[in-house]
Design brief:
The complex is a heterodimer of chains A (101) and B (403). Helix content of chain A is 34%, strand content 36%. Chain A is an alpha/beta fold. Chain A has one domain: 2-Layer Sandwich (Transcription Regulator spoIIAA), CATH 3.30.750.24. Chain B is of the alpha+beta class and 403 residues long. Chain B has 2 domains: 9-151, Rossmann fold (3-Layer(aba) Sandwich), CATH 3.40.50; 171-399, Phosphatase 2c, domain 1, CATH 3.60.40.10. In chain B, helix 1 links the parallel strand 3 (24-28) and strand 4 (49-53). Classes of the chains: A alpha/beta (101), B alpha+beta (403).
Chain lengths: 101, 403
C-alpha cells in the first residue's frame, strides 16, 4: 500500500492506494503519524485508489477512527469501491464510521 | 575541518562485546616458531583455547577431536598443502561453515583466487602482520558467533511456533467425538482446519445443545501470528464458559461475546464470526454473524449465499447482532469457511474470491456428487499449494437425506 497526504486549511486528505493487508502495518504507522493535527481538524481517507483490504486492513480503519477520537479530530472515509466496499458493508463499518458521499 | 576521533573500536578492529574466551582455534603450521607466535597473537584478544597440528594428518585428527571454531592453516603444510586440506574439510557438511584462514607467502592474485576456490574464508599474507592477523581472526569468530546465535534463536522461535500450532489444532473438536455427535444428529460434518506456518487466528467448534439442536461456531481473529492465536484461545475460553442455555440464541451469544471481547482486545483487534444453530425439528438454520465470509447453503435448487454481515466481534462494545433464519432440510448442505480460502493467492497472485468459490462448489457437486468436499479441497490445494499464508477453516455440513 502507498499513500499521499494532501493538506487544506482545516482538513487533511489521505489517499490510500493498492492493497492494504497485514504486511502494511508499518506503512500504516506513517499514515497515523499524519493525525498530529489540532482538535477539530478533519481527516478524510480517500479509498478510491484502494483495490483490496483484508481483515487487518479493517483493523487499521478502526485504529484510525480511534486515533481521531482521542485527538478530537473529525474522521471520515470516502470512495470505497468493489472488494473494499464489499468488506466495509460485510463488517457494517458504515454504521460506526462517517462515510462521505 | 577536524572530526572528533572517538574510537568505538579497540586496537584490533570493532569491539562488538562478544567474549572470545570460550572460542577454540586450531593452528596448523609445520614451524614451531610460527605456531608459538600465532598462539601469542591470539592471547592478545583473549583466545586461550588453542590446539596445534604440524601436518595434514594431524590437522584432520585434531579438527575431529578439538572441534575448533576457527582454523589457521599454512598453505604449505606438508605433506598435502593447505588448499587440498581446505577441499577435504569443505567436503564434509560438518566443516562447511568453519572459518578457515589461510596463510601464504605467495601473493599473486591467481594463487589467492585458488585459495578462495578451495574454500578458504580469508587469506593472511606471510610474514604475518600481527595486528591484521588478530583483527581478522576476531572478525571471523564474531561473525560465526552471531550466525550461531541467530540460528539458535531461529530454531527456538520455530520450535515455539510448532508448539503453538499443535495447541491451536487441538482447540477444534476431536475427530472421533465429532463423527459420533454428527451421526447422533443425522448430520455429516467434514472439517478442514489448517494453520499457516506462522500460526494464526482461525478457530471453530460445535455444540450438541440438546436433542435436535446443534450449534456451529466459526471465527477468525484478526491479524496473524502469536497475537491472533492467543486471542483465538481467549475466545475459546469464553465459549467453554458459556452456559448451554446461552448457546441456543445466536444473536444473544454474539452480543455477549462481543462485550467480553471488547473489554480484553486492543483497538483494531477483533474477530469475524458465524454462529448457527441447526434445528432438526423445524428444519431450519438460525444464525447470527459478525462480518464473516458469507456461507453457502446448498439445497435441491443449488447453492445460494447466506448474508453473514454484522459488526466485527470485539471491535465496538455496543454492537448488536440479529438472528436470521433459513430453511435447512434433510439433504441440504451448509458450507462455512474462513477468508484463508477465498483470499488465498495462486501463482499468478489471483485470489479465489467468493464467486470463484461458488463456481468451484458447483463443479464439485456436479463432478463428484458423492464426495464434493474432498474434491473441492483437492482442487484448491492444486491451485493454491499446501503452504498457507493464512489459516484455513472449511466446514462441509450436510444433513442426512433420510432424517
Amino acid at each position: 500500500m502507498d499513500f499521499t497526504v494532501t493538506d487544506a486549511h482545516d482538513s487533511t486528505e489521505i489517499r490510500l492506494h493498492g492493497r492494504m493487508t497485514f504486511s502494511d502495518h508499518d506503512t500504516f504507522r506513517s499514515v497515523i503519524a499524519a493525525f498530529e493535527r489540532p482538535a477539530g481538524h478533519r481527516m478524510v481517507f480517500d479509498l478510491s485508489g484502494l483495490d483490496f483490504v483484508d481483515s487487518s486492513g479493517l483493523g487499521m480503519f478502526i485504529i484510525a477512527r480511534d486515533t481521531a477520537q482521542k485527538k478530537k479530530l473529525d474522521f471520515a472515509m470516502r470512495g470505497a469501491r468493489d472488494e473494499v466496499q464489499r468488506l466495509i458493508t460485510l463488517a457494517k463499518l458504515h454504521k460506526v464510521f462517517t462515510i462521505d458521499a | 575541518m577536524e572530526f572528533p576521533t572517538e574510537t568505538p573500536a579497540s586496537l584490533y578492529g570493532l569491539e562488538l562485546g562478544i567474549p572470545l574466551g570460550d572460542r577454540r582455534v586450531l593452528i596448523a603450521d609445520d614451524s614451531r616458531f610460527n605456531r608459538r607466535t600465532l598462539a601469542r597473537f591470539l592471547q592478545w584478544i583473549g583466545i586461550v583455547q588453542v590446539a596445534f597440528a604440524t601436518n595434514g594428518q594431524e590437522l584432520l585428527d585434531q579438527v575431529e577431536s578439538f572441534d575448533p571454531d576457527l582454523l589457521l592453516i599454512d598453505a604449505n603444510l606438508p605433506p598435502i598443502d593447505g588448499m587440498a586440506l581446505c577441499r577435504v574439510l569443505r567436503g564434509n557438511p560438518r566443516w562447511r561453515d568453519l572459518p578457515i584462514l589461510m596463510q601464504s607467502t605467495r601473493q599473486t592474485d591467481q594463487i589467492r583466487s585458488l585459495c578462495f576456490q578451495a574454500g578458504a574464508t580469508d587469506l593472511l599474507a606471510k610474514p604475518i602482520n600481527p595486528g591484521e592477523c588478530v583483527a581478522r581472526v576476531r572478525y571471523h569468530l564474531e561473525r560465526r558467533s552471531m550466525v550461531q546465535e541467530l540460528r539458535a534463536f531461529r530454531e527456538r522461535v520455530e520450535r515455539d511456533l510448532r508448539q503453538a500450532r499443535s495447541m491451536q489444532l487441538a482447540l477444534v473438536p476431536d475427530a472421533e467425538w465429532l463423527e459420533a455427535m454428527a451421526s447422533r444428529n443425522a448430520l455429516r460434518i467434514e472439517p478442514v482446519f489448517q494453520t499457516s506456518d506462522e500460526v494464526g487466528g482461525d478457530f471453530w467448534t460445535t455444540f450438541e445443545i440438546d436433542g435436535g439442536h446443534v450449534g456451529v461456531f466459526v471465527a477468525d481473529l484478526s491479524g496473524h501470528g502469536i497475537a491472533s492465536a492467543i486471542n483465538a484461545f481467549r475466545l475459546h475460553t469464553l465459549l467453554t464458559r458459556t452456559p448451554p442455555d446461552d448457546l441456543r440464541d445466536p444473536a444473544r451469544l454474539l452480543t455477549q461475546l462481543n462485550q467480553r471481547l471488547a473489554d480484553i482486545l486492543t483497538v483494531g483487534q477483533f474477530a469475524t464470526a458465524f454462529y448457527g444453530v441447526i434445528d432438526r425439528h423445524t428444519d431450519s438454520l438460525r444464525y447470527a454473524a459478525a462480518g464473516a465470509p458469507n456461507p453457502l447453503l446448498g439445497s435441491r435448487g443449488g447453492f445460494r449465499v447466506l448474508d453473514a454481515s454484522g459488526m466485527l466481534l470485539g471491535a465496538f462494545a455496543d454492537a448488536e447482532y440479529e438472528n436470521r433464519s433459513t430453511p435447512f432440510h434433510p439433504g441440504d448442505t451448509l458450507f462455512l469457511y474462513s477468508d484463508g480460502l477465498t483470499e488465498a493467492r495462486d501463482r499468478d497472485d489471483a485470489m479465489l474470491g467468493e464467486e470463484g468459490l461458488a463456481d468451484l462448489i458447483e463443479q464439485a457437486v456436479l463432478t463428484a456428487p458423492e464426495h464434493p468436499f474432498p474434491w473441492l479441497m483437492a482442487r484448491f490445494a492444486e491451485r493454491f499449494g499446501a503452504g498457507l499464508y493464512d489459516d484455513l477453516t472449511a466446514l462441509w455440513i450436510a444433513r442426512d437425506a433420510t432424517s
